[in-house]
Amino acid sequence: MPTTKNVLARYVYLDKLLSDRYHYYDRKTLTEKVNEMLETDGFKKVDKRTVEYDIIDLQDAPFNAPIMEFKKEGKNIVTYRDCTFSIFKKEMTDDEKYLLSEVLSILGQFDGLPDIEGLDRLKKSVNIKHNREIVSFTKNPLKTSTIFGELFNAISHKQVIELYYHKFNNPNEDRPVVLYPYLLKEYSNRWYLFAVKSDGKERLYALDRIIKSVPLPAIEYIEYEGDINERFEDIVGVTLNEDKPVEHVLFWVADETKEWVMTKLIHESQKHYKGKKEAELRKKYPSLQGGAFFSIDCRENYELITDLCYYGKDLLVLESDGIVKGEVVKWIKEMCDGYINLNNYRISNNV
Fold first, then answer.
1. Percent of residues, the chain, with pLDDT higher than 90
2. Would you tell me which CATH number, out of the four given (2.30.110, 2.30.30, 2.60.120, 1.10.3470), belongs to the domain 142-230?
3. Are 288 and 282 in contact (CB under 8 A)?
4. What is the CATH number of domain 7-80?
5. Is 60 exposed, middle or buried (0-12, 13-18, 19+ CB in 10 A)?
6. Is 108 strand, coil or helix?
């Protein structure tokens, strides 16, 4: 039987792979995954026969691992019969139990997070009691109550999914699509899934329009290239118009609202102008009394225009080096026209 210096490392890797309930591995794939981990940790790669001997060793004393094999889509899958088993399992400390209980209590407040398999058992094992709510989240009822937890699991366990989804204008049509899920993002009391389709295109899906999510453990998960957070750096909200450039937008906010805007930023790039720059702006815009001047640098999208219009007369967009100012003026004009038309209709019809 072949033995090498990295045998313990291989046991650790195999233990992790065999207890993975979210992915299926045959002996060939197990060997590939083990070798990836070995290379990452600076060890030499091994052949498939060595990994097969390791599996036999894990089944024998002192490990006695409950390893089973079954056929799935033409492959001989190797896994633990009990996915909670681990050859390195140890009892949790009191501090670990306390920390876990607090985390589970917070997660339990998310609307749509289900009691996933084993969660009740986990709660009982750490003796979680019902405590008063300390952290509160805005509720957003979902059509499929468990979808948040299902997607949470898929992302955390790097699992490919088939998503059934419908558009606003066609609620009765289920649109299945194979996705690599990467991020759950909240904006304006609505949750979104950021994922990449099998053709490589990035997409956002509102959770309240998702019908169901089906795991596809036989398909290998592909990691997202780069930093996901960079995708959202230049925008307000979630809509990325890649064809729109980053614009510098200057705006003024009235005294009644400026403290709110100072503490609740419209965008992370927001700047508050004081001193010499503020004096220059007051000279340039003498009709604006009091208030404060701000600027942001981001791409134009629906959410940005909505936020800039949100404060009404208390926020005026003064300059932009693109279309933002024009879009804000257009929105406000169309809103005024709507009220004028409504008022004229009421007068002419004695409503």
1. 50
2. 2.30.30
3. yes
4. 1.10.10
5. exposed
6. coil
Domain borders along the chain are 7-80, 91-137, 142-230, 246-338
* pLDDT tens track for 155-168: 988 999 999 998 77
Mean pLDDT of the chain: 85
Q: Tokens 């001047």 belong to which residue?
A: 293
pLDDT of residue 142: 61
- The residue written with tokens 């208030």 in the block is 291
Q: How confident is the model at residue 298 (pLDDT cuts 50, 70, 90)?
A: very high
The per-residue b/e assignment along 218-250, b for 16 or more CB within 10 angstroms, e otherwise, is ebebeeeeeeeeebbebbbbbbbeeebebbebb
Q: Give residue-wise pLDDT tens across range 244-294.
A: 999 999 999 999 999 999 999 999 999 999 999 999 999 999 999 999 999
The sign of the torsion formed by the CA atoms of 85, 221, 45, 1 equals positive
At residue 324, the 3 state secondary structure works out as helix
Indicate the burial class of 297 (C-beta count within 10 angstroms; 0-12, 13-18, 19 or more): middle
Distance CA 238, CA 240 (A): 6
Going across the sheet that includes 202-206, the strands are 202-206, 190-197, 170-187, 161-167, 210-215
Angle, in degrees to the nearest 10, between helices 27-40 and 48-59: 100
Q: What gap in Å lies between CA 112 and CA 141, rounded to an integer?
A: 7
Distances in Å between the alpha carbon of 271 and those of 248, 274, 296? 11, 10, 7
Q: 């083990």: which residue's tokens?
A: 34
Q: What is the pLDDT of residues 110-144, one digit of tens each?
A: 545 544 444 555 555 556 555 566 666 666 556 55
CA distances for 9 relative to 35, 51, 52, 81, 268, angstroms: 11, 12, 15, 22, 43
Mean pLDDT check: name the lowest of 40-44, 145-149, 291-295: 145-149
Do the Cβ atoms of 157 and 22 come closer than 8 Å?
yes
CB atoms within 10 A of CB 273: 17
